[in-house]
Design brief:
With 87 residues, the protein is of the alpha+beta class. It contains two helices and three strands, in the order αββαβ.
Length: 87
Amino acid sequence: MTGIGQEAVVERVRRTLEPVLVRDGYELVDVEWVRGGGRYTLRLFVDRAGGVNIDDCQLVSRTVEPILDVEDFIEPAYDLEVSSPGR
């Protein structure tokens, strides 16, 4: 992969998105930047009091996509997945 490395992507995503998610009442539990089958995937695991459901995941996705687009620090094309940590 060219551009910034895996750890740098994870750290920058965390720094960029965590304040926004906290503002909206979510906890950013984990961030994964993985490659599989020739595609990259950015996975965000979010939680909040009472847990998260599919509507929360969709809301978080719609909230963070434009932020990531504007910041534009992830070079390869990637898929964004938002889910619960499954606690």
